Amino acid sequence: MWLLVSGVVVALPSRAAEAEEDRRGEIVETIPVRPLEPEDETRETEEPLELAPMKVTGELLTRDANRTVSSVSVHDGLEIERGTAQDVYDVIAATPNASLDDSDYGVGGMTLRGIGSYGASGSGAYAAYGTSSAVVVDGVGLPRSALSYADLSAFDLETVEILRGPQSTGLGRNAMAGAVIINTVAPEPAFDFMPRLRGRFTRGDENLHQYAGAVEATLWPEKLALRLVHDDRADDGDIVNATRDEDDWARRDSSTTRLRVRLQPGGVDGRYDALLSLADFSHYRGSRYVPLSEEYSRVALANAPQDYDNHSRLAALEQRFRLSERWAVRAVSAYIRSETVSRYDTDYGASDSGGTRQQENAKAVSQELRFEFTGEALQASFGAYYYRDENSDATSGYIDITGSLDANGLCALTILCAVPLGRVNYASRNPAEVEDIAAFGEFDWSLTERLTFTAGLRLDRERNERVIATSYDGNTTIYAAAVRLLVAAGALPPEETIVVSREFSEVLPKVAVSYELFEDWFLGVGYAEGYRPGGDGYNQVSGRYFSFDSERTGNYELSFKGRHAPWRLQAALNLFYTEWNDMQIQLGEGTDNYMGNAGPAYIHGGELELRWRPLSSLQVVGGYGETHGRFGSGVVTADDVDLSGNRLPKAPEYSGVLALEWSPWGGLMIRPEVQWTGTAAANSDNQPQHELPSYRLLNLAVRWHVGRVGFYVVGTNLDDEHFRRDANNYSVGGGDVVSLGEGRRLAGGVEFEF
Hints:
The protein is mainly β. The protein is 7% helix and 55% strand.
């Protein structure tokens, strides 16, 4: 296979020309090198534009977006490229009721409808075996260590689907809050070998650059095709470090290479279809945290490195075999390796009090076998799933002995605090193994021409295990005595190795009803449940064994979606109410903290999204969402912090986006965009100094194309809005720190397609 790949890497085609003809009737023209072109006015009045809805592939059954009761925002990949997004993370951040998280724990994620990836209390990564939201790339789910650090390029994508609300019936563990489904462009065997090429070159502020290209070719007419994509992006960031004299403290360096191979031995109408997907992602990102005192100067003071570095490799083989006109079988085999290294300064300041290095190496395999039935009144999908994950979670670092003794009130016991005592070097290992087996099914039953009933169920059984171990050494002869003092005081865990494990089962139902109230307008109501796995743990400092159960969400959904062809309008409204039970939060007092369950929390809100094309040369794309989530009564966390009635952390009260795509004449497209984000509490304690204020971002993209070559200029945050991504006081010294959003940035370049 690799000999075959190396022989054709110079000639892989795109489906752009064919796709242009197939999609010309849709509400959005999707060829990035050719903006909206004015249409013949006679045709506009006599033949209204066909509004073909997007497909949703992230559920067990593929449906038109208008007929899906679930709340899902479908972003066409080439429409994304017409905007200003640098990667899929930018797409998520611009989606109503979806936002990105930042954390100085060395973990990150997203918040969907008020539920963060790592729990409600801001410490959900501690002892966690999973996340509340899933990211799936070409059928491969990213592991915890890669959730927000893998490079998710926005170049050459088919669609990005952001599903808000529980998706555990279809995706199982890690989809309690929702999921992001990324489908890259797949090769399509053509009638001839003729290769196709598209590319992009970008330069901008802060030494920003991008070099991206895609090539595709048919190797065996109508039977075998390949597509190769590479995207390289980097910039120096806009935060300097005065202590280390680095003006690229928040730099980013990303690289993505994807290869997809499609085999259809019987041609496009044959029974067998195989799609092999291989990907290699690299992503380095510097920290955006600065002390609160330096928030507006945007100056970091950390003396130790503070950054994140991920390298992920994915492989998936999707095979489909049509058994008959109504029956088909689908098998998806997936493999992933992910290595994430995160480093951070424990006090965020110039003093050398300590530094930490975390490394999460994940290796996972999965196999899904699914049978699909398509009848006149019934569509169904059912099958089985197996998943195995090995996560090597290790932490190492150092602490200053004198500073640690003083911080824990131990200097009164010894005169040694008057002199430098050197460092204690520590290392801890927390490797975990997860094995998951599930059986699932879902069907759509058309009771009448207008009424459809949907039901789904997943039976999930999981076993997980974790090893907890700690060791020390030092750079002075006094370190052993200092370690004994700090262990006795509960400031450090003892040197030991502990193994904990857990098994449990979950039943995850889903029901929905959709009724075509008017032509092409559907009213739906549904209920679905989701979960994040629990497990066992051990606190080495206090010697406490603990168990925490799965946390669950029950979500009630009301939807109204449709399209009106004469007005060239598509709209989707979703209202929801979610009860979040058995929340995994940190309990206990002082150093005797542990993961447990509490709750509930209650969340309600909704999303409205629309596309409207009032003129042939003008399209309006917009969305607005509100989320109101609060902890219920009696939710008490570590050190008796009562969260009752508090807002859920990292959950903006509202978020919205409005973009215009205007083509005043052929070849020119002007796309202004405004994003709004409401206030949010950074942490579950809702302290006012950690509030995340509301902000507004103004972006603009201007593209001018002549034939197959185009030039463009893009700008983000044009009015240089100052905004926070996070705020807390988790540094060793107790000082407040903030993570800052990016300031104004301009870039330009050239793109082409042949």
